[in-house]
Amino acid sequence: MSLPKRIVKETERLVADPAPGITASPHDDNMRYFDVTISGPGGSPFEGGVFKLELFLPEEYPMSPPKVRFLTKIYHPNIDKLGRICLDILKDKWSPALQIRTVLLSIQALLSSPNPDDPLAADVAKHYKEDLKGATQVSKDWTNKYAVETA
Amino acid sequence: MSAGFTYVDNVNTNLICCICRAPFLNPVTTRSCAHTFCLECIQTAISITPQCPVDRSTLTTLDLRPANPLLRNLVDELTVECPNASLGCTQTMQRQLVDIHLRDDCAHASVPCTHPGCERQVQRKELGKHDETCRRQDVAMCPYCATERAVEGFETHKRICGREEVVCPSCDAVTIRAEVDTHTAACPLTVVACAHSGNGCAWEGARHAFAHHIAACPYEAIKGFLSIHAGKVAALESENASLRRKVDELEGGLRAAAEEAQAARRSLGPWFRADASTSTSASAVASPAVQPQRPAPEERVLRDRRMSPLNAAMLGVASDAPFVPRTDPSLDASSFFPPFSPPSEDASSDAFPYGRALPAAPSVNINTTLEGSLTSLRNSIMTVSTSLDTMSRRHDVALMTETLRMHEEVQSLRAIVHGLRMQVHQIMMERSQMSLSNLYSSGQTRTSEDGGWSTRAEYFNDRPSTGPSMSVPLMTTVRRTTENKL
Question: Where would I find the TRAF-type domain in this sequence (chain B) (predicted)?
């Protein structure tokens, strides 16, 4: 089936006018499947890392949210070992007025402000609650270990 | 959502629906939060989540109302390309006029083929070309029976279509044509004739009155008799037909027999005549008025068979039979056989005295077959030839006798003549002696005169010796004499 005009427009804009620290490019064989990279926001333990994600637009999009998952290992209380993200706009708070760009910006913001009160990875959240400094250090270590391109 | 218009100009972002990311199409505005969406977009979104997509406030379709007319006009007047631009249409127009353009103008718009049953959608500019090749172009739809019919003969079909509604001429009820006969057979107002109309009842009336009539119909009372009568007539007719067939066969047989008889008559030739006269005379026997004027059949047979009186005499049958033919003017045989000169009855009976002595030849019986007749005739001819032979032998004997007798007479006459000659010679000698002594006495002359006389004497003596050559004319003369006696 042909691609809805909205997806075509969003894709065009993502490629032509990308948001800062975010890239998204569709697969050639499936225009609903995007390879995404998000740079760790400045001032966060993820600064300096470039995290890879995959994004898929389901058939019902924009009436249902896109499916997004981290491919790069990350130590974050709202992201589990499989890369699944606990973010309300990707679930019950989704609105057809949202777009790929806004979703990715929200994820980037989530990296800046972890929310251990609504955890997905319970052990990470407990670590963040009990030892913020130590947990932040682990996140920095993981970022360096997994998300930094070794030159 | 957007129907897929392609907008020619950049559109102000305030006119973009946040759901479909396209200029508003049929925009509505929420009553509670005053956000504007395409009608279709917001309806779909509310059906999934009853919230405003922008501010997540609770929202139902009842909270939607048409957007401000100003906004509506702004989006409706946006310039768009024809939806068939990919097919080649280069026109652009206000968005609100797209439907009219597609319906009336666009040469690339798909329109259905005008022929019923053809489901093809063709571009308007190619409709004419399609018409020429459309396999359904000969098909039209019957409005009554809703079936497809060829255009050729369509009007004829409409006139006889079984589903067309028609009105009963008698009771004004409406039926379809296919059931008119059924209806007429039951319609109480249809005029029917009496069941006995074939027997002469002249009553005609509506069907519902028939029961009343049949109770009083005079023919109803004799119904049983009429049926028996009809049965008998039918039996007679069939018998008559079979008899007619038989008569035809017999006539055919008769005709064949007549043809055979004709052929036989031709092959028989003159023989047939006798047969016919026999049959006619046989038929004549039936009428006594005719009989006396004609000879009895057997006499006729004999007479006809006789052919000539001479023959009859030779066959030995005529002498006893009365010689009727000359007296009967109506005799057929006289004209059929060449007439012979009728000899007198005396001659026929006397000239051939041997005729009676001959055994009578078997008379030809006309009742026998042709072969038998021919055999008997052959026998008769043989008999005739035998009698002829006998007669010629007798002739010869008679002639011989006559000739011997004549011969003796001639001998005696010759002797007499010789005597006379001797006497004459003596006289002559005496006379010459006398004259010689009277005249000269010369020995030479006397000698020559004697030789001349002797020669002449020899001639006379030799004459009777030529008997054989003279015998024939003699016999002829005798024969002629004999015939004259006949």
Answer: 80-127, 156-201
The total number of structural domains in chain B stands at 5
Share of chain B above pLDDT 70, in %: 66
| Residue A86 annotated in active site | yes
Domain hosting residue B483, numbered range:
406-423+471-486
Look at residue B108 in the predicted model and tell me its pLDDT: 86
Q: Is the domain of B32 the same as that of B102?
A: yes
User: Is B53 within 8 Å of A6 when comparing Cβ atoms?
Assistant: no
- For residue B470, what pLDDT is reported? 47
pLDDT band at B343 (very low <50, low <70, confident <90, very high): very low
Q: Which two tokens stand for residue B114?
A: 């005008």
Amino acid at site B431: R
CA distance B124 to B117: 18
Out of A55, A86, A121, A135, pick the active-site residue.
A86
The ipTM, to two decimals, is 0.81
Residue B320's pLDDT band (boundaries 50, 70, 90)?
A: very low
- Which residues lie below 8 Å from residue A28, measured CB to CB, with a gap of 6+? none
- Contact state of A10 with B19 under an 8 Å Cβ cutoff: no
The reported pLDDT for the residue numbered B247 is: 95
Considering only the beta carbons, identify the residue of A10, A94, A97 that sits closest to B54.
A97
Instruction: Give chain A's domain count.
Output: 1
Contact A5 B53 (CB under 8 A): no
Question: Tell me, what's the pLDDT at B335?
Answer: 45
Q: Is residue B116 very low, low, confident or very high in pLDDT (cuts 50, 70, 90)?
A: low
Per the domain annotation, does B193 fall within a domain? Answer: no
Provide the phi-psi class of B21: left if phi over 0, else alpha when psi is between -120 and 50, else beta: left
Q: Which amino acid is at A3?
A: L
Once rounded to an integer, what is the mean pLDDT over residues B111-126? 77
Q: Are B303 and B372 contained in the same domain?
A: yes
* Distance of alpha carbon B485 from alpha carbon B43, whole angstroms: 166
Nearest by CB to B2, from A5, A93, A94: name it.
A5
Residue B18 domain-assigned? yes
Q: Which domain holds residue A43?
A: 5-147
CA B445/CA B2 separation, integer angstroms: 196
| B24 inside domain | yes
Chain A residues close to B4, C-beta within 8 Å: 5
Q: How big is the A-B interface in CB pairs under 8 Å?
A: 41
